[in-house]
What we know:
single chain, 317 residues, alpha+beta, Beta-lactamase, 2 domains, 9 helices, 40% helix, globular
Amino acid sequence: MSELKTLIEQMEHKRKEREWYHIGFGLFAGVLVLGGLSVLVPGVWPQKEVVPVAPLPTAFDNIELSAQAAIVYDLITGEVLYEKNAQAQLPLASLTKLLTLYVAVDALSLKTPIPMTAQAIASEGDNGFIAGEMFTLEDLAKLALVGSSNDAAAAIAEAAAEARHATNGTALLAGAAAALGLSQTYALNGTGLDENDALSGAYGSAHDIAILAGEFLKRAPDIAKASLSASVTATSRNGFSYTLQNTNPEALSIPGLLLSKTGYTDLAGGNLAVVFDAGIAHPIAIVVLGSTKDDRFLDVNTLVRATAAQFAGLTLD
């Protein structure tokens, strides 16, 4: 009997041990659950205050521009290094010619002969062309890009529309803008000239133009290269030569410049788009819209300096 009593006492002792084990485990599990809830539900468990970390200084801090909108866009990574109202839809003026030329080099070969029509000559800014003269697309494109010739751009737009059997140049430009994903961009003509006192010839954003500039540079690098020159000369098949000065007098002072295009109308103010190499084969697009005729060059130079400093790991005072 004594052995049986001892065995019963031992079994009872083990049963109580198991009960205390389950109670202890339950309490421990409850603590874990409450701890988990404290992460998911603020206020359930005391939270440690998170101190925000200030962003690191960049070369673009405290930049001041006259432009209403601007962007510094990395064409390799797609990163926006700096922006000011970069999605705002503003008048483009002659930056529209980048879209016209992009469409043309897609529709025609560089050696395609293009006539200078009376309608094209009627565009504002007559450069002395004679109706019926024939030029290659390459020569007219350089006049339109470097000298911002409205006559040349209008003739190119007409030829591109005819080659694509488009009802008009506007539809062709709209199709190209859509294909490139330029959601803020549309053009009413191929030059960017104001339609009237209240309506610009084209509208777009700084972000859109940065993308367009990069795509045009890839599509027509030889034409883009002409914008690095102080002037450009084109000779018609009729034997007449025309020389136009670069509308960007600062072009030669930008290191690593790959492309430049100016724009100015009463409605747009001063616009400027450039692409330059910030490193080894690392093109950066800079666009300013809605500046003044003179300050657009200062704005771009400020952003070029800041970009160079940013790539060098420096900040500007």
